[in-house]
Amino acid sequence: MMIPAQLSTPALRVQGLRKAYSDVVAVDGLDLQVDAGECFGLLGPNGAGKTTTIEICEGLLSADSGDVEVLGRRWETDEKDLRELLGIQLQDTQLSEKLTVDETLTLFQSFYRDARDIGEVIDQVELGEKRHSRIGGLSGGQKQRLAIACALVGNPQLLFLDEPTTGLDPVSRRQLWELISKFQAEGKTIVLTTHYMEEAERLCDRVAIVDHGKVIAMGTPRELIDSVDVSHLPPPEPRKTSATLEDVFVSLTGRGLHDE
Amino acid sequence: MSERIPFPITEEMARAQLKPMPRRSFMKSSMVQLTLVRFREFIREPEAVFWTFIFPILLAAGLGIAFRQRGPDKVRVGVVASAPGAAAVVQSLTRDSSLVVVTYDDSAAALALRTGKVALLVVPVSATDSVRYVYDRGRSDAVSARVLVDRAVQAGAGRIDPVRVSDSYVTEAGSRYIDFLIPGLLGMNLMGSSIWGLGFAIVTARSKKLLKRLMATPMSRVQYLLSFLCSRLVFLILEVATLLGFGHWAFGVPLRGSLVTLFLVAVLGAVSFGGLGLLTASRARTTEAVSGIMNFIMLPMWIFSGVFFSSSNFPNAVQPFIKLLPLTALNDALRANMLEGASFAAVSPQILVILVWGVVAFFAALKLFRWR
Prior knowledge:
The complex is a heterodimer of chains A (260) and B (372).
Chain A lengths: L7 E2 L2 E9 L4 E10 L4 E5 L6 H8 L7 E6 L4 H11 E4 L11 H10 L7 H7 L15 H13 L5 E5 L7 H16 L3 E6 L2 H7 L2 E6 L2 E6 L1 H6 L18 H9 L7
Parallel strand pairs in A: 4-8, 4-9, 6-7, 7-8
Antiparallel strand pairs in A: 2-3, 2-5, 9-10
Chain B lengths: L8 E2 H5 L14 H14 L2 H21 L8 E6 L5 H9 L4 E6 L1 H9 L5 E5 L6 E4 L5 H17 L20 H31 L2 H6 L5 H31 L7 H23 L5 H18 L14 H5 L2 H15 L7 H21 L4
Parallel strand pairs in B: 2-3, 2-4
Antiparallel strand pairs in B: 4-5
């Protein structure tokens, strides 16, 4: 089914984004376009500018220059609408340890016009058994699922996830992946950052590889992987098996995703 | 690319009006929910409950007992036993219940006087009609001992007072140390719990990125700040009631003014210090930083504002500045109400000082506040 181009607005459009801090240029002329219904990944090493980019898109940081349009709206004029329509998970939020899961979600629910039912969201993130437990007693994976529940409770059209699985064990990570896939299956849009290539390959329809504040490659994981000739990779990379997104990054920059 | 059906946002959908805010039950409204969070965070922190409610009562009880009014101390006097007529003098002095008599030989008597074991030394000079008092004229207890001893000695020798006197004793509630202390502790407590309660909670939320997370929701900033004031007002009723109730019940501290005025003064004080609490929390990123700022603000007022002792002990030159401190104004207003029964109008200068601090601090805080 084709939608006439003039009728569809991208869920997120970023052009020429630039942001410098006193000592470093975090984002250096970055362009992105995310279609509605897409799961889009920003993949790159720590310090590549992923978090700065996503926080500018979330309206939590201001850019030095460039243009950001979210769901056809702009932060300068439509902040009130956008806050209702976005679900946001930040990288290192610590929710109040003294509150229970239910109390926290009831608080977040109270802010939104079109909020979802708490019980339904708790079931979706599989925290039913922990509903009346204090957050201080939850595991890392459970806390992260609660953070995503807080992002989902406002019934968002677009979900921003900043390194949603960093620091989690493999089981918790898989649980979160399922959660994100289900949200996408409802036709909602997701923008996430990650430095795990496996996560990007598994979840994302399209990936932008970010380094030094710029997009150095963009496409579906398949397209990016196919663009690399494994036999030309520097040692110890050359091998017969198919390439990974890590190989893509290495072939573009000459260093690994996790090198610092 | 996977076989995904595109789910576009059309211009129409993008421009669609947001749903109106649903009518939620009172308890599910964001204002009530935010205030409930404040309650829960407070009562689930046992230390906070202790410092707000238990500590002031322990302090009042301890100081009230330490500085309670006792009868005048007995005066110790020495008699040189080897002198003639010593036995008669000892007998006369022992009849006076306000004196404690100790007998010494010559050298021990001089040592006792020098080391302050006795206030005065009686040296009988002749067997019946002559004694000498040895004492330090610069010591007030020695001078009053001279009066008491002489009265006993003369009476023992047969003096008859021409005027019959009788004593009746009174203790005036309102003039004791505890009566001074309780309003001061109340003022100090209102200041402490407002500044700590707001400052610490806000900076903790900021340092844990919780404030930033809340800013990513449609939450109203005004409601967020108001939730702190609302919860403060509820706890304030409890704070005022426990401390005043304890003072009144345990020590009979008077409540001579109108309780409505007293409560109103306490509310204005708490709200004003709430503004100062917001100001202390407006920029700090860490709880260590805000603790320093809060102590910097509160310490001078603990000392100067007449909590434990009257601020009139400080030189006249600094009195105008002391009077302009918000805690001085609050303590003065509370004392005037409780001890003198002053009306709201009578404490209006203090109310004005409290209000000006609160309003200026609140607007400065709004201007400076770091929301992310």
